[in-house]
Known about the structure:
Number of domains: 1
Number of strands: 9
CATH class: Alpha Beta
CATH superfamily: Gcn5-related N-acetyltransferase (GNAT)
Order of helices and strands: EHHEEHEHEHHEHEEE
CATH architecture: 3-Layer(aba) Sandwich
Strand content: 25-35%
CATH topology: Aminopeptidase
Largest sheet: 9 strands, mixed
Structural class: alpha+beta
Amino acid sequence: MELKVSSLAERPEMYRAVVEMPDTWPELMQHDFTGNAHYDRIATELPEYVLFAEDEHGEVVAHAYAVPFALAPRGGELPARGWDQVLVWAFQDLRAGTAPDTVSAISIVIAPHAQGTGLSGRMLAAMRDNAAAHGFREVVAPVRPSAKHLEPRTPITEYAYRVRADGLPHDPWLRVHARAGATIAAVAPASMCIAAPLEEWRAWTGLPFDREGDVEVPGALVPVRCDLEHGYGVYVEPNVWMRHRL
Length: 246
């Protein structure tokens, strides 16, 4: 597929086409308060870190969001609260005028009809190149393993480090990062947290949530913990921190 990759800073007139591009995120991913408070701000406040790809017809078929943040002043350790934490840090730094030293990937999204064509790897390469062009020497990524939902009860510490015979990660999305030169830096066991009343979980998933304990939800990487006595469910998603040296 012939692609043209641009940033929203270069092409602000494409804002609506980018942010309204269809996606295939599981419904539960739409209900993380931290993400909902910060994700949309990236396109408006950090447009130079929002890349998008147009096909030969000018249709937006992929986009990639990233944020710059200061890691060294926070001790250099990637946070256990992963995706949520790095979003908060990035906008804290932007508000305070703190100079960033690292870029974190936030998402790479492929339009439904363009999936399976290798676009994710191409957008990851574009994200790396964009970070290097802005003077950064490292990109980190709190990666959401794409096949982990098939094994929701497998511990992330086991799943993340599983490899194939060729030494590459078992998980397809981790494998794309590894082929681009990334290595696993750490596991983020609480990368995203979604807590809600059980009636909301029932509406989102169509499941009864009528028994105490862990409930497997389609698309979720781990089970949702159902607390019948207190009437709420909690989903704590693990991710895998991968480090790209540029």
